[in-house]
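User: Need the bound-state model for zinc ion:
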Amino acid sequence: MHASCSQTLAMFFAMREDQAEEAGGTRGGICMQYGVPGNGDRALFWTDNWVDGKPICDLAPTLVTLVAPIRKKTRTVSQALALVGNGTPRWVRDITGGLSVGAVIEYLHFWEWLRHTQLTPGVEDMVRWRWTSSGQFTVQSAYQALQLGRTAFHGADRIWKAWAPLRIKLFFWLASKGRIWTADRRRRRGLDAHDTCLMCDQANETPSHLLVSCPLAKEVWWQILSWAHCTCTFLAGEVSIQDWWEHIIAIQAPGRRKGVCSLFMAVGWHLWKERNARLFERSAAVVSVIIARIKQEVDLWVAAGARKLGSLFCE
Ligand SMILES: [Zn+2]
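Assistant: Bound-state model below.
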C-alpha cells in the first residue's frame, strides 16, 4: 500500500479511536496498538496487545476489573515491570480491592509469566495492527474493522437523503447522537453550563428537550407543520429526536415524507440558532419571529432546488 494512503487510513482510525474514547471506550479499541515490547516505554501494560499478541485485559479479565481506569490508560509496560518498595513490581500495586478466587488464579499465572519477561533497552515498542493475527496492516482487514466499529444509527438515511445544506445535516447527525454542546453535555465534561433551558427556563437543556419537548419548540413545530398542511400530533413523555422525527414522518402521506424531512431540518436548525442567540448574544426572539425566519429559510431552500419541500405547498 502507498505510504500516504496508509497514513490517511491510520489518521482516520486514530480519529475513530478518539471518538470511541469520548464515548467511554478505551484506547486501542479500534486501531493500532503497541504489540511487540521493546523497552516497554510506549506499550500500555493493561490494554495493549503485548502478551503474545493479546492484551492482559482479555487474558485476565477478573484481575483487570480491580485496576483503576486511569492506571489502565496510562501504565506502560516498563513502568509496570519496574520494582518498587520491597522488590514488588509496580503492576501489583495497580490492583486494588479484595481478590476473588478467579482473580487470585489469574494473578498467580501472570506473576509467574511476567517474572520471565525481558524488555529490550534502546529498542522502541513496535506498533501492531489489531485486526490481523500477524499484526500487519492489510486493506481488507481495515474495511472489516470499519464495518465492525460502525454502530447502527437509526435514522441516518433520513438525514443523508433529505434535501438540506450539508452543515445542517451534520448538525442533525450530531444532535441525534447527543453530541451537540447542550448544557447537559457541558456539565458531563466539567464545563460551565447554564442551569435550565434558555427557551422555557423549566427543564434541563438536552438535545431532545431543546428540539422536541420544550414548550417553545412544540409551539414552533405546530405552527410550521400547520403552515405546510402537515399533520401534527405530539407524543407523551420523554421523546428522542429520532423518535420524534420518525413519528412526524409516519403520520404524513407517503408522497409528502421527503419534503417533510427537509422541513424537519429547517425547524430544528432554527430552534438551535435561536438557542445560540439567547446564549451568546443575549437576544431572544418571540415565536412569531422564529416562525418567520423558518418560512424564509424554506423559501430559500425551495428556490435552491428542494422540489419535494416545495411540493408541500402546492396543494
Ligand atoms: Zn425548554
